[in-house]
Amino acid sequence: MTTEKQKMLAGQLYDASDAELQHDAARCQEWLARYNASLGASRDARAALLRERLGAVGEGAVVRPPFHCDYGFNIRLGSGVFLNFNCVILDVVEVLIGGGAQIGPGVQILAADHPRDPAERATGLEFGRPVRIGADVWIGGGAIILPGVTIGDSALVGAGAVVTRDVPPGARAVGNPARLLR
Q1: Which of 47, 118, 119, 124 is the most buried (most CB within 10 A)?
Q2: 0.90 surpassed by pTM
Q3: Using one digit for the tens of pLDDT, what is the confidence trace for 6-57?
Q4: How far is residue 161 from each of residues 20, 40, 105, 106, measured CA to CA in Å?
Q5: Residues belonging to the active site
Q6: Domain 4-180: homologous superfamily in CATH
Q7: Inter-axis angle of helices 19-36 and 43-53, nearest 10
């Protein structure tokens, strides 16, 4: 029998009100309360807290509180990743951020998704699509990265951009919806 958590992790429709998922989300909220209270703590203390909850934390990765996520364990940060204040990651499936990526304040990385059909959406089921951000990417403040998007290595996403499609390596994407600059 497939659990709701297994369905979630596989990107299938799942019931987020499932007891196991609610327990995982509550543990994450408890961790977030501790992490977000650590602004005045040392970089090493915050790094130790990140390693408690996140799926992977590369050497020198920094996440400035406040920070928000669903579960934490689906987030993988490469070495030298920097997330500025007020980042939100909806990590119902894997969110991978490559080494050296710099994420501006208020960025939202949204792997959680919902059915497009109103009747199916009314069931309350949801699903996720992985988000992958390559190495040495820069994402400007307030950008929104939508479910299923891949941003290639060394790409740049302008402040406030809403990224609805993949961004090739080395490209620049700006605007709402984000468009590639030539």
Answers
A1: 47
A2: yes
A3: 999 999 999 999 999 999 999 999 999 999 999 999 999 999 999 999 999 9
A4: 35, 31, 13, 12
A5: 114
A6: Hexapeptide repeat proteins (2.160.10.10)
A7: 180
